Amino acid sequence: MRIQRFRGEEELKLDSKARMSIPVGFRRVLEAQDPDSRDTPKATPTVIVVYGGHLDGYLECYSVETMSEVEAMIDDMEDADPRKDVMIDMFLTCSVDLTVDDTGRIVLPAKLRDKLGLGQQSPAYCLGKGKTFQLWNLSEYEERFGPRDAVKSEPAFNPKAVFDEMRSKRKTEQGA
After folding, report:
1. Domain count within the chain
2. Domain around 106
3. Where are the alpha helices (DSSP H) in the chain?
């Protein structure tokens, strides 16, 4: 079975009721990774939006399945570990569950719109990041990283070399 991931990028707009359409490919991932949506006819998926201060200028969006993995890792931490409370604050306290409606939209709460500086005249930018996707204010994203269509890596960076290194490491581990 193919593992579904969030892929691609898209500019999004808020309507007058603070609704934002989730890209169709992203909705399919959310549906496939939400047991309630997957197993219940006419159910709509949930997206978990993390907004804490550790996210500098963007929101991180999780499927139900991926957030369950994060929660399980936090649960596995020792209660005496002071990092556990930090992780709880980052991923549970500073998160909100949003339901995708039957037309593929979410209502973005004021707290999240304010964090991004979004209004009706300021487009959002949605980026697939594999297991998650990010929401940015488009102008903030371009201010930090340049135009969306610009090359986003160092000229000397070779992604194929990274894959070769990872394949070699995997072969070494399998042979051991």
Report:
1. 1
2. 9-151
3. 24-32, 35-39, 64-76, 82-88, 110-116, 138-145, 159-175
Closest CA to 33 of 64, 62, 69, 68: 64
Global confidence as pTM: 0.85
Residue 175 within a domain = no
Tens digit of each residue's pLDDT (9 = 90 or more) over 53-108:
899 899 999 999 999 999 999 999 999 999 999 999 999 999 999 999 999 999 99
Any domain includes 42: yes
Give whole-number Cα distances, 46 to 27, 72, 140, 148, 171, in Å: 9, 18, 26, 28, 38
Residue 155 confidence (pLDDT): 60
147 assigned to some structural domain: yes
**How crowded is residue 135: how many other Cβ atoms within 10 Å of its Cβ?**
26
Assess if residue 168 is contained within a domain. Answer: no
